[in-house]
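User: I've been trying to design a sequence by hand for this structure and keep getting stuck. Would you show me what you'd pick, starting by listing the structure so we're on the same page?

Assistant: Good idea, let's start from the same input. This is the structure you sent:
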């Protein structure tokens, strides 16, 4: 564990060095009074100056204002390579992205064990080439507010749905309470299943499906909040429920795929919270949503019916205060389900079914 943390620290240090080297490059341009565009600036050697640790702050403060006057170009005609900012403080990340002309949208999330202010995920990811008018979404740890900005943007009568793509790239083996005030602990979040034939990962699949569902809901006027937009995040199951709560969602939809020791087992199931005092207030509405989504999902996918299942032991339900469901979209341990789920056309059917069920629930 200690070694992992050290490696991560080293990566962050590396990013900091690149950031301040870049800022130093900007300062040179600014002082020369030049009005170079973003693409030209990118060709500046980033290794111009790498100040020692401790000397950083002064350099950064000095150039911050100059940056604004030089880099006003946010052009769709310029291609920019997105720098890696995960692990940096949010203010540093904004400075770094600002230095290459990219705008930032902040997405606060509960911090868990992460340092307050540190960036947990970015979208688009590092290394991707984007146009200069792209806005980079940064998910960062914020103990004070985990409410995504969306709440203030929601129009009267507009519906909000929070979608949680299950799992993430790196599992977090730490534990968290089963529900608010519980002494029973459960793992924070796991990496999820892997396809027996295709080797697709559950976290990848869940994100792909979630984005498809999001697209369908948005085209029907629904405001959608995703708990994650990248696989490189560290968001526990309880935190995911808190994001749904804070976004004021009418429904919390969690997207997963299943596993079984028997490879013949296949099909879709829809889970809903039931059987403890935490979820009593949301049980009836969750069941209703589960029934509607499950019916539409079966109709559009033609998948084997594994039923609607009540669960009292799911952390991501027990922390939720808004109606919640979890859709198991198929078994990655079953060769046929696995292959079908890897097919974009079948993914569309799954997304169609879930979106239709959600819309039917929202209309009630
Ligand atoms: Zn799962």
């Amino acid at each position: 564990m200690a070694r992992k943390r050290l490696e991560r620290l080293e990566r962050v240090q590396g990013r900091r060095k690149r950031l301040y080297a870049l800022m130093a490059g900007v300062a040179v341009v600014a002082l020369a009074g030049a009005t170079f565009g973003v693409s030209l600036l990118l060709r500046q050697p980033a290794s111009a100056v790498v100040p020692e640790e401790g000397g950083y702050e002064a350099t950064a403060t000095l150039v911050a204002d100059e940056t604004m006057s030089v880099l006003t170009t946010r052009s769709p005609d310029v291609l920019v390579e997105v720098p890696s900012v995960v692990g940096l403080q949010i203010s540093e990340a904004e400075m770094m992205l600002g230095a290459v002309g990219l705008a930032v949208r902040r997405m606060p999330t509960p911090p868990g064990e992460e340092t307050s202010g540190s960036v947990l995920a970015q979208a688009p990811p590092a290394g991707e080439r984007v146009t200069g008018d792209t806005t980079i979404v940064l998910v960062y740890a914020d103990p004070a507010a985990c409410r995504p900005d969306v709440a203030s943007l929601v129009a009267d009568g507009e519906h909000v749905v929070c979608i949680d793509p299950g799992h993430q790239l790196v599992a977090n083996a730490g534990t968290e309470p089963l529900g608010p005030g519980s002494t029973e602990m459960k793992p924070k979040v796991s990496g999820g299943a892997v396809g027996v034939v295709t080797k697709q990962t559950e976290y990848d699949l869940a994100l792909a499906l979630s984005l498809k569902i999001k697209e369908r809901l948005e085209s029907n006027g629904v405001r959608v909040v995703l708990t994650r937009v990248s696989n490189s995040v560290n968001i526990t199951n309880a935190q995911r429920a808190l994001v749904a709560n804070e976004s004021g969602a009418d429904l919390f939809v969690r997207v997963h795929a299943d596993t079984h020791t028997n490879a013949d087992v296949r099909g879709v199931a829809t889970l809903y919270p039931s059987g403890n005092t935490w979820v009593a207030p949301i049980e009836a509405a969750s069941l209703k949503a589960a029934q509607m989504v499950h019916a539409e999902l079966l109709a559009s996918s033609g998948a084997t019916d594994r039923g609607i299942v009540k669960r009292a032991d799911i952390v991501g339900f027990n922390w939720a205060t808004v109606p919640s469901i979890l859709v198991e979209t198929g078994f990655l341990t079953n060769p046929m389900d696995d292959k079908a789920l890897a097919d974009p056309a079948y993914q569309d059917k799954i997304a169609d079914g879930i979106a239709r069920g959600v819309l039917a629930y929202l209309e009630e």
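That's my pick for every position. To get oriented when you compare it with your attempt: The chain has two domains: 2-141, 150-363. The first strand starts at residue 79 and ends at 81.
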